Amino acid sequence: MPKTLNSTQLADAKIVFEQMVALKRKTLLYPAQHPELLDGSKRLHRSLSSLLDQLGDITYAMHDDDLFIESELLIRESVTYAGFIKECAAMDIGAITFLKGIDETEIEALMDALCTDRQTLENEGGLANRLKNRGAPNIVISSAAAEADDIEHEETETKAAKEVYNSAVTAVKDIMKSAKIGQGVSVQKVEKIVGGLTEALFTDHLNLLGLTVIKSYDETTFYHSVNTCILCLSLGNNLSLEHDKLAILGAAALLHDIGKVNVPKDLTTKPMPLTPEEFEVMKRHPIEGAEILSQMPGMHKLSMVVAYEHHVGYDLSGYPKLTNKERPHLFSRIVQVADSYEAGTSMRPFKGSKLPDQVLAEMIRQSGRTFDPVIMKAFVQTLSIYPVGSVVLLDSGEIAVVYETNTADLARPRIKIAIDENGKHLDPAEAAILEMSERTENAEAFVRSIIRVIDPWELGIDVVQFF
Ligand SMILES: [Fe+2]
Ligand SMILES: [Fe+2]
């Protein structure tokens, strides 16, 4: 019989699930016995044990994309962890039950089984069997009743932030291709992409944010759409938007430039500033976008509003002219900030590249006019002074990539060294994460400090390799 959990137990059970998803992801990234993994399984074991002390056992069930804790359907988590739920379905896992008395080695065995490829699992008689053979008596796997849908699995099987990112770009390409020939945009597909990005963002936050430094000359709109979506999800989260609102915001951000499918490609990739006539054509994309989206059954109304308003300023500058309201919608204002930053830091052929901190500084100057000041403040916090993916020169003579923000001290992020003090390029795969808050032995000074942000292109650093 499914049991009923009180609100504290339910909250704890959600944390356990979140830790499980995060640990699974880390298991794919790190070698066995890596401290990150040991630490993760220790934490998961601790949370799980205190829950099992009260409940005796707990079951996480997954049916048709939905997650249940005991009999409670978790709508928000079903979207957030869509990728993980799909992966479980692909491995014929309908439910995972944990029993009191579970130890850390059993958790490690579960993670190992979850990360084993399908063929090997099949050879071993399935995941439940593999787990049994590895000696995990306190984990019970029930098989999925629902039939697996191979195509869907292919779309959502995700291993790491990079894969989530790449599949989002491919999916956006498909969506835009369909829109171009007048075919419908699948709302479900959009929700899946946003769900996958949200899950990756919350479990693998910095890696995904770091990937937004990926830009492309030829396929600007696809990468730009995914980058804007990730920035909006992160920004929306900082603005404390609830998960269901975040999903709507993410979808709107992903589709904000869909009207560009009706702008001739030579205009979107033109290597010079647009002529006034060309700019008039370009200015139609918000209207065209809203029109395209209005034809899509099931599309949330706000996607159209955002597509229509994303080039309108906080002070109603920009285009098209809004005549019936004092401000664009909150979601339009969020997308406008993320969109402007993303476009500003993109390598547009005629603009040359701009460094993230320069773009941010210019935007801060426009705060309260072009940009909503509250959103700008949250955005600066989201990106921090040295946005993840920036390249910085250190007083040690080394050059480093900003890997992770340090919320306790924004001027001292976590970094990875790209070029050593002798000018030698280091292997990104080997680069350790260094704390800029680290002090010298006598604690009088910092080991390293940032002198300034520099342009990675000049130095031939491929920032993406560091994430
Ligand atoms: Fe746009
Ligand atoms: Fe845009």
Q: What share of the residues lie within helices?
A: 40-55%
Please name the fourth-level CATH homologous superfamily of the largest domain.
Hypothetical protein af1432
As a percent range, the share of strand residues is 5-15%
CATH class of the largest domain: Mainly Alpha
Q: What's the overall geometry?
A: globular
Q: What is the residue-averaged pLDDT?
A: 85
Q: How many β-strand runs?
A: 10
**What composes the largest sheet?**
5 strands, antiparallel
Cα-atom radius of gyration: 24 Å
Number of contiguous helices: 21
CATH T-level fold name of the largest domain: Hypothetical protein af1432
In the sheet with the most strands, the strands line up as 3-2-1-4-5
Structural class assignment: alpha+beta
Question: Any overview of this molecule?
Answer:
- The protein is α+β, with helices and mostly antiparallel strands and 467 residues long.
- The chain has 3 domains: 7-152, no CATH class; 158-383, Hypothetical protein af1432; 391-466, no CATH class.
- The chain has helices spanning 7-29, 35-55, 75-80, 82-90, 104-114, 118-123, 127-133, 150-156, 161-180, 187-203, 205-211, 220-238, 243-254, 265-268, 276-282, 285-294, 301-309, 330-345, 356-365, 373-383, 456-459, and strands spanning 57-63, 66-69, 72-74, 93-99, 139-143, 391-394, 399-404, 414-419, 434-435, 450-454.
- Strands 3-2-1-4-5 form a 5-stranded antiparallel β-sheet. Strands 9-8-7-6-10 form a 5-stranded antiparallel β-sheet, with helices on one face.
- Helix 9 runs antiparallel to helix 10 (187-203) and helix 12 runs antiparallel to helix 13.
- The longest helix has 23 residues, at 7-29.
- The chain is globular, with a radius of gyration of 24 Å.
- Bound molecules: fe (ii) ion (2 copies).
- One fe (ii) ion (FE2) binds at residues 224, 228, 256-257, 339, 343.
